[in-house]
Amino acid sequence: MTIPVTIRLQSADFDAAAEARLLTQGRADIGAVVSFTGICRGGAGADAIAAMTLEHYPGMAEAEIARHAEEALARWPLMGLTIIHRYGRLVPGDNIVLVVTASAHRTAAFEAAEFLMDYLKTQAPFWKREERAGGPSWVAAHADDDAAAARWTPGKTSSSS
How many domains does the chain fold into? Predict the structure, then answer.
């Protein structure tokens, strides 16, 4: 059976529940679905984020995300995978990213989803600019995100259960 993989970069919003249903529809072999939705946060006070703009290189970004999706499929026994990442100007409360993983068992689904989100957060070719009261600024990498991604170096994943 071919493993269904969906990768989309889009400016339009997505429906996380509908995407999970599409991945599992008519499948009795799937025992676990993990979904993660990243949402634009605003915060409070003078430092609150008014909006975030995400930019990417079309074609290159999809290819890089597909390469990491293939790695996830090779590392875990997945039965389906969906990755949707938005671009353009987003305001607090807007969906940014969706990762849905499906497997026979929960461990594989959880680990693959974490692996993909750590990659998307630290290495995916997106550029983020936040708008705040003090003006816009580009978002720099965070050391804790890099540390989370480093745990996926070869030989450090656990087996599925």
Answer: 1
Rounded to 5 degrees, what angle do the CA atoms 124, 69, 1 make?
165
DSSP 25: T
Side-chain half-sphere CA neighbours of 18 within 13 A: 4
Which CATH number belongs to the domain containing residue 57 in this structure?
Answer: 3.90.1170.40
**pTM assigned to the model:** 0.88
Residue 157 is assigned to a structural domain of this protein: no
Give the model confidence (pLDDT) of 77-99 as tens digits.
999 999 999 999 999 999 999 99
The span from the CA of 111 to the CA of 89, in Å, is 30
The residue assigned the tokens 């915060």 is 43
Q: Give domain status of residue 31, yes or no.
A: yes
In a domain, 158, yes or no: no
Q: What share of the chain is helix, strand, coil (3-state, %, to 5)?
A: 35, 35, 35
Tell me how far apart the alpha carbons of residues 99 and 148 are, in angstroms, rounded to a whole number.
17
Rounded-to-10 torsion of CA 127, 66, 110, 31: 140
105 to 111, 112, 159: CA distances (angstroms): 11, 11, 11
